[in-house]
Design goal:
Layout lengths: L3 H8 L4 E2 L4 H18 L6 H22 L2 E2 L3 H6 L1 H4 L4 H20 L6 H23 L1
Antiparallel strand pairs: 1-2
Helix pairs in contact: 2-3, 2-7, 3-6, 3-7
Length: about 140
């Protein structure tokens, strides 16, 4: 993957460069798997399943970023870096951007309206995200 774009984000203060932390990346990936499993629990509310799926996406995306030796304190930036950490297309990470916007409405304004189809789409995308991070870490 191209590092210049990530290095540019370091220069403007959006990312921090740190040594690769394989153990942390693997822990984040394990957390992503657990949260995705939670998102598929039928006895949870739609809001709970959406939040779990969103958190799974963030943990997996952060695992990829940490694997490349970067860290961000901004959730949006973690998703925005996916084209550089995993080669994801804009279409893929924009779905996560939409989920991020819904999450922010819930967290900061107490409003979350989410449909089952949105949760299913997000879970499917997170499945692919986790698989891509697994391949990255296995190399």
């Amino acid at each position: 993957m191209t590092q210049p774009a990530l290095d540019n984000l370091v220069r403007i203060g959006q990312l921090k460069a740190e040594a690769r932390n394989e153990a942390e990346a693997r822990r984040m990936l394990a957390m992503a798997r657990t949260r995705l499993a939670d998102a598929r629990l039928g006895n949870l509310s739609a809001e709970g399943r959406f939040t779990s799926a969103y958190n799974a996406a963030h943990a997996a995306a952060l695992a990829a970023l940490r694997w490349h030796g970067y860290r961000s304190e901004n959730r949006y930036t973690v998703f925005q870096c996916l084209p550089h950490t995993l080669g994801w297309s804009a279409v893929q990470w924009r779905i996560l951007d939409n989920a991020h916007q819904k999450r922010n409405l819930a967290e900061y304004e107490g409003y979350l309206e989410v449909e089952e189809s949105t949760i299913a789409e997000l879970c499917g995308l997170v499945d692919g995200l986790i698989a891509d991070v697994e391949r990255l870490i296995a190399c």
